[in-house]
Write a structure and sequence with these properties.
The complex is a heterodimer. Chain A is α/β, with parallel strands linked by helices. Chain A is built from 15 helices and 23 strands. Chain A has an 8-stranded parallel sheet. In chain A, strands 6-22-23 form a 3-stranded mixed sheet. In chain A, helix 15 links the parallel strand 22 and strand 23. In chain A, helix 4 packs across helix 14, helix 11 crosses helix 14 and helix 12 crosses helix 14. Chain A is globular. Classes of the chains: A alpha/beta, B alpha+beta.
Chain lengths: 506, 150
């Protein structure tokens, strides 16, 4: 056997003065990083198996554990970084593709940190959201070019027929995460939180499990290239339908749920045989043009009697603006843009780290393009991909988004510690796994509460920021880029974002 | 009466309930002292039953019609008139272990060293440590309508 040169990434520090050998860490680590030695009645750690998910740290009753970056370092080299070297070693060992979970983890292009919000001073008053009404209600869907009214018996009635709309109490929705990629308990937590918070959750492409049908009125159901679980009942039970063309973490790449995760319940929900790989092709095999997309959009609209808004989700790529324009012209009620930092359960590192463009640029490019073409009212823009805080969301709305999708932050609220090992199926937090030993670790009563708390907290913060700017409705911020200023940016970046440099007045 | 209800669907088998039961019934009530310094460690009155991935923490059910009360010959087992809990008085216990024999749940455990009852859930004076420290709310302490079967 050849020498294995894959070294541990983390070091488990156990304070022996505090360890009571209760073995809770041993029982809770799905990676077997903790082992109890019966002979010396002590718990030992195997650093090489640790993924730094903090499960053991969180459950340890005496707080005897800590996880550190392994002290072993390569010789410093700007080009040959340790992750580059480690990936080559891994591939030399296996000959495979390096897989990763979650979104891109490098800070190459986070424009949110370079954008600053405005506040009202002297010449216009700021508003205190605790004392005065503040509106976050958001309507997603096609808006008419103009509204005509008629007078019937002295009362005004709208003559224009409105397209179906989704009414959001706050402009934050939960991103598409399928049953299969995440556990049923995780989906249930988000579904219930969405119902509680007056927003929507997304089934992802894995169908709608029968236990979640009661939350379908707050669900956006996905139709993706694998067409898993799609039927008339599925489409009609939901609030909206989303055609998924691409995903920010892996633009141009399909999906693959390994057969060992396709349990009886998943097989029934996805309508595929138990134990078979669920493969979502990279393209939709019936969509090769905007015209083909239009056929699917109208196919779905026919199937749902024109009662449900139809979204189209694409990854933010170089040509995002003209593509989005085509999508709107094809009849979509909303365009979903998933940026470079968008998450996933599994993606090749080479794709995740190199393909796509930042969501900040995509949102502004698409908003600008649709306005220029006079079709901005025909569809809502939903931004997705790496939203970390209410600040990011507020900036996205000011750049032109109608609402945002949050995925990773929603999972963090459920317990995720972003260890990026979703693809192993051994999620110690019971989220990205189908192992019955692990899925029960996520109690949907707790998950629901925590996810709803996050939405509540962020909504309050958005209200504070709006109030600070002297605005009392989220509608007045949408696309209002005068409230944004950029720092540490080149002129062309500011130009694409459509914002002025910090220090420039109106 | 308020009872400890088991939510076995979400019991993760971590056994933190056992750890905290021991702490709550230790001399010092401090986790490190209880496990590291105290010579005779109290035995947990709660224990996790496991079979495959199904697990649940079981402690005295404080039965309405408690066989241990009838079986106890010294009156060491008694019912608290206020809370309805079945309590055990070590002073009166002679270690006949009849309660161990008759308990349908196997939750009264014998202490082989002292020839007494080693552990018996006392509901921690209305604040059960196992419930308070369950990380997944798999144990709930509440008053439910027991006739509804909810």
């Amino acid at each position: 056997m050849a020498l294995n040169t894959q070294e541990s990434e983390f070091q488990i520090i156990r304070d022996e003065d505090k360890c009571i050998a209760c073995k809770v860490c041993v029982r809770q680590c799905a990676n077997d990083a903790h082992v109890y030695d019966v002979d010396d009645e002590r718990v030992h750690s195997q650093d090489v198996k640790c993924v730094n998910c903090h499960r053991c740290v969180s459950v340890c009753p005496t707080k005897a554990l800590a996880i550190k970056k392994a002290p072993l370092e390569f010789r410093e080299n700007t080009n040959w970084t340790s992750s580059a070297i480690k990936n080559i070693i891994k591939q030399a060992d296996t000959g495979g593709v390096v897989l990763v979970g979650m979104g891109f983890d490098q800070s190459k292009a986070i424009y949110w940190d370079k954008i600053l919000l405005n506040a009202a001073q002297v010449t216009n008053p700021s508003i205190d959201p605790l004392r005065e009404p503040m509106e976050l209600k958001t309507l997603i869907g096609k808006k008419p070019d103009r509204v005509k009214f008629e007078r019937v018996d002295g009362k005004l009635h709208a003559k224009t027929k409105l397209s179906p709309q989704l009414e959001l109490a706050t402009p934050i929705m939960f991103s598409a995460m399928s049953y299969g990629s995440i556990s049923l308990n995780a989906q249930k937590s988000l579904a219930r939180a969405a119902c509680e918070a007056g927003t929507y959750w997304n089934t992802g492409e894995g169908g709608l499990h029968k236990d979640l049908r009661e939350y379908a009125h707050r669900a956006i159901v996905q139709v993706a290239s694998g067409r898993f679980g799609v039927n008339a009942e599925y489409l009609n039970s939901a609030a909206a339908v989303e055609i998924k063309i691409g995903q920010g973490a892996k633009p141009g790449i399909g999906g693959h749920l390994p057969g060992e995760k396709v349990s009886r319940e998943i097989s029934r929900t996805r309508m595929i045989p138990e134990g078979t790989d669920a493969i979502s092709p990279a393209p939709h095999h019936d969509i090769y043009s905007i015209e083909d997309l239009k056929q699917l959009i109208y196919g779905i609209k026919e199937a749902t009697r024109y009662k449900k808004p139809v979204f189209v989700k694409i990854a933010a790529v170089h040509n995002v603006a003209p593509i989005a324009s085509g999508i709107v012209r094809a009849g979509a009620d909303a365009v979903v843009l998933d940026g470079l930092l968008g998450g996933t359960g599994a993606a090749p590192a080479a794709i995740r780290n190199n393909v796509g463009i930042p969501i900040e640029l995509a949102v502004s490019a698409v908003d600008t393009r649709l306005r220029e073409e006079g079709i901005r009212n025909q569809a809502s823009i939903i931004a997705a991909g790496g939203f970390r805080s209410s600040g990011d969301i507020t900036k996205a709305i000011a750049l032109g988004a109608d609402a945002v999708y949050i995925g990773t932050s929603a999972l963090i609220s459920l317990g995720c510690h972003v260890c990026q090992k979703c693809y192993t199926g051994k999620c110690n937090w019971g989220i990205a796994t189908q192992d019955p030993y692990l899925t029960k670790r996520l109690n949907p009563d707790i998950g629901n509460r925590r996810a709803a708390n996050l939405i509540r907290g962020w909504s309050m913060e958005i209200k504070e920021m709006l109030g600070g700017m002297g605005i009392n409705a989220i509608d007045s911020l949408r696309g209002n880029r005068e409230h944004l200023r950029g720092i540490n940016m080149y002129e062309h970046e500011l130009e694409i974002l459509g914002i002025k440099a910090a220090g420039m007045a109106w | 009466m308020k009872r400890i209800w088991i939510n076995e669907e979400y019991c993760i088998g971590c056994r933190l309930c056992e750890v905290h039961c021991i702490v709550a019934h230790s001399k010092s009530k401090k986790i490190l002292k209880a496990f590291k310094d105290e010579a005779v460690r109290a035995c947990a009155a709660v224990s996790v039953e496991e079979h495959g991935y199904i697990s649940f923490a079981l402690q005295c059910r404080h039965c309405k019609d408690a066989p241990c009360l009838a079986a106890c010959m010294t009156g060491a087992m008694s019912r608290d008139p206020n809370t309805g809990a079945v309590l055990h008085d070590e002073e009166k216990c002679v270690g006949c272990w009849m309660c161990v024999m008759v308990c349908p749940f196997g939750v009264t455990k014998p202490d082989h060293g002292k020839h007494k009852i080693a552990s018996k859930c006392d509901l921690c004076d209305g604040k059960p440590a196992c419930v308070e420290h369950c990380p997944n709310e798999a144990l709930v302490y509440e008053d439910r309508d027991e006739t509804s079967g909810k």
